[in-house]
Amino acid sequence: MRFVINGDDFELDQAAVINRLRGRTPEPIQTHWVEVNGVRFPVKQALEAVLGIGRATFTSQVALNQFARLGFLSSARTQSASDLRPAADHRRPQPTVEEASAAFATLVAFLRAAPFTMSINTLEHALLEADSGSAAKFTTDVGLTEELLNAALVVRRDVGRVNDVVHATVIALALPAILEEGEVITNRPSLGAGNDRSRPFDLETNRRIAEFKVALWSGGDMMRKRAVTADLVDLAMDESGRRPELWLAGTEPIRFLRTSSSPLGSLLSRSSRHQRTRYEALYSNDLPLATFVAQHAAHVHLRDLAEVLPAVAALM
């Protein structure tokens, strides 16, 4: 799941939340909490620990919303499916398919009219010293209207799990193309977001282990870089003797892995304690990523999903 807090992009799944909170001691709960693996944490403490950002940079409601989207029980959400839906669901009917299609068209038209970052930058400069009247005009001029907001809310409701759908579909469609004669899947594949202890890799067969990262990189990809590095390290440290493969969308993630001088300690700083402990027992935190890839992960096959899935290739 991807989301933005104060302009910074984050990517999170249930497994990452569980791993990053495992072993932590909850602070006293004042009002709002989230339950993770049977332990209740103050909701701001939990999100701070999971993302590595100061709790003063977000509200309790923001934290509750993110944990609700991930399916965690909290003080503002019950376990029932109806309570996991936003409160607005109880006040108005779900949009029809036609209405959702129209909303999507409105959103796409806005995003294609001009680069979103450029529009926001223009508005930020225009709003400096603006009053009520001019603020409204400047906002409308760049296309940020109530119609756009309504369209975005409708689209978000229907496509909130689109990344999960893409991840599962990519792996499922890739399997017939990559499985070799005599190769069979030996463990239940992990098609959803995140892996668990019983399924450490997205794919395990009698010949290979594999991880799949489907996100298309477009700049400002630090969360994706951390995730790709963590997967690479896990594959490199596997001792099963099976062929490790890391499947990526496009050549940019592969170029990053092979050329980045960023130290592994920094890239793994938000990984699970278990992974960091295993890594630090073997390697230095100061080891540049490119050196690790060339020397210690040279046996990990870096593969481009576009090789086997034309739909991915078409988006490059």
**Contiguous helical run count:** 15
Percentage of residues in DSSP E strands: 5-15%
Mean pLDDT figure: 85
The SSE order reads: EEHEEHHEHHHHHHEEHEHHHHEH
Q: What's the arrangement of strands in the largest beta sheet?
A: 6-7-8-9
Label the overall shape: globular
Low-confidence stretches: 78-91
Total domain modules: 3
N- to C-terminal distance: 22 Å
**Total count of strands:** 9
- Note the main sheet: 4 strands, mixed
Overall description:
α11 (252-259) crosses α14 (289-295). The chain has 316 residues and is of the alpha/beta class. A hairpin with a 3-residue loop joins β6 and β7. Helices cover 47% and strands 11% of the residues. The radius of gyration is 22 Å and the shape is globular. The chain has 15 helices and 9 strands.
Q: Helices and strands in order, then pairings?
A:
Blueprint lengths: L1 E4 L2 E4 L2 H8 L11 E4 L2 E4 H9 L8 H10 L3 E2 L6 H4 L12 H17 L2 H12 L4 H10 L4 H14 L2 H17 L24 E2 L3 E6 L8 H16 L5 E6 L3 H8 L4 H4 L5 H8 L8 H7 L5 E4 L5 H5 L2
Parallel strand pairs: 7-8, 8-9
Antiparallel strand pairs: 1-2, 3-4, 3-5, 6-7
Helix pairs in contact: 2-3, 5-8, 11-14
Supply database-style keywords.
316 residues, alpha/beta, three-stranded antiparallel beta sheet, 15 helices, 47% helix
Concise account of the structure shown:
This protein is of the alpha/beta class and 316 residues long.
